[in-house]
Design goal:
mainly alpha, 10 helices
Length: about 250
């Protein structure tokens, strides 16, 4: 029985990955964070190359810029890719009655959910890796960066699964995706506003954004990392609890 479930999940994974490549909207969503990072890199290059900046100013600005670049890349990859892949993927299958067909073929709702979550995590990790290099990240930090990306993506994926199961069609999914996307992007704007920065620390991607800054300074294993780690872990737990409570009720095909 376990082997049969694994085979079904594997077949769903293959189908969902193929759908990701076949769907133009999904492909555009995956390419958008990379394109934004290319644009940001060009704009930041002009700022950091300003001849009027002294060596001391340059030294003070560089860590902030690096955290902004890598943190923004992660927030965009997680927010755009995970949200759209999960929400629109489930909503599209509901709209086209593919989900009902899968249920009639004795495919469990849990297998559908596992497949969608896995594809979202894989897609966001690949996009994160591409953004990392476009943003000029140090290759020695790639492993830590991708691990932080997965940690930040988990609560977003869990909430997106709940909203995807609650969506009746793609239009509803579009409405539901907006607040999730906006929340994941908030840490990007913390550098511009102190009030936003204070709020951002407590958001799902706020913890990993702070951890990226600590990793860049070599302080990831310090006591300073405990608070953002706790925030990230708390959001993962909250997402898992919400998903567990609502999964059975929402798993019915509308």
């Amino acid at each position: 029985m376990m082997n049969a479930a694994m085979r079904k999940t594997g077949a769903l994974l293959a189908k969902d990955l193929l759908d990701l490549f076949k769907n133009p909207t999904m492909l555009v969503v995956c390419l958008l964070p990379i394109a934004f990072m290319a644009l940001y890199s060009f704009m930041v290059g002009d700022v950091t190359g300003d001849a009027e900046m002294t060596a001391e100013q340059q030294e003070a600005v560089d860590p902030v810029i690096r955290q902004f670049m890598l943190g923004s890349a992660l927030c965009m990859a997680v927010g755009m890719v995970c949200t759209m892949t999960v929400l629109y993927g489930i909503a599209e299958e509901k709209e086209k009655h593919t989900l009902r067909t899968l249920m009639l073929a004795n495919v469990g709702a849990s297998q559908v959910v596992v497949s969608k979550a896995a594809v979202a995590l894989v897609a966001s990790t690949v996009v994160n890796a591409a953004c990392f290099f476009v943003a000029g990240g140090d290759p020695s930090m790639l492993g830590v960066y991708l691990a932080l990306g997965i940690a930040g993506a988990l609560p977003v994926v869990l909430f997106s699964l709940v909203l995807g199961l609650a969506s009746r069609d793609q239009m509803t999914a579009g409405v539901y995706s907006v607040p999730v996307l906006l929340v994941t992007l908030v840490p990007m704007f913390g550098m511009a506003n102190e009030g936003v920065a204070k709020v951002a620390h407590w958001l799902p991607t706020g913890g990993v954004y702070d951890l990226i800054g600590l990793a860049l300074r070599g302080d990831l294993m310090s006591q300073e990392a405990l608070a953002p780690l706790a925030v990230t872990a708390a959001w993962i737990v909250v997402g898992a609890v919400v998903f567990a409570l609502l999964f059975k009720r929402l798993a019915r095909d509308n």
